[in-house]
Amino acid sequence: MTIASRKASMDDQHAVPDVVARIVALARGWSFEATLPTDAEVAALGTILPEGTCVYLSAVPTRDPAAQLAAAVRLHAAGFAPVPHVAVRTFATAASLDAFLSRMVGEAGVRRILVIAGDRDRPAGPFRSAVEAIDSGVLQRHGIAEIDIAGYPAGHPLLSPQELDRALTEKIDIAAEMGLPVGIVTQFCFDPDPIIAWIGRLRDFGVENCIRIGLAGPTNIATLLRYARRCGVEASAQGLVRQSGLARHIFGMSAPDGLVRALAGRAAGHLGDVALHFFSFGGIAATARWAKALAEGRITLDADGGFRVAPPS
Prior knowledge:
Helices cover 46% and strands 17% of the residues.
């Protein structure tokens, strides 16, 4: 822990109610995502979260989109609002994307999607990028009323910051022309500084859209590093492990409390319209319980710049 962070933590202790209030304010409106939740996981969610809660569904390049559709149908039947990632490079034809969207809307009640290019090196069909799908009009034809797009505060392994900025603003501009409201959901990151700098740069560019800040939910260190490697942010994750003293405890648990607290200290009046978005690497029920406790203010600050969450009384 740096001298500056120790001082900030000591200062926080003199204003504990204000610190907790800032954290709770940032946590309101949180969202999270899962990959393919099972029936048991969806049932568990029903005991934690109210109906209508948005649950994002990741697109897995190695799995048939039909599995994602089935998960969306399960969530919808349980009263939740599925928000699927639609990886447009996955679809071999425009007709196959049409059919997928038609079923998502008709069978799973989807009205909002996160549209991405996807991780395929080469597109399977006519869509190479998310902006092409947005511009095609296919989303509105199927009743999609709102979209999210991806943001990368820590960069992208294949694209320069300039390319990322250009792609993001192009998607926002074209969606606006098409009458589609746009939110931004970021890749998960482990350092508040690049997140704050990235959001500040977007705000300076005039981008006022809501930004959902991606964070890894509570999970063990081994799982965290595995997902970080897969998503191209391994160096950032390893830095977190070293700084937190967890390097020798590879199966120990990690939670984003320090990062949330640091962001909350900068959010009010500086970052604009932001919310938290949790990746449920440690399980969707565990992530939902942790995030719900956070938003309800069931937290106790600690001297290391983080906090602990408490179970419901």
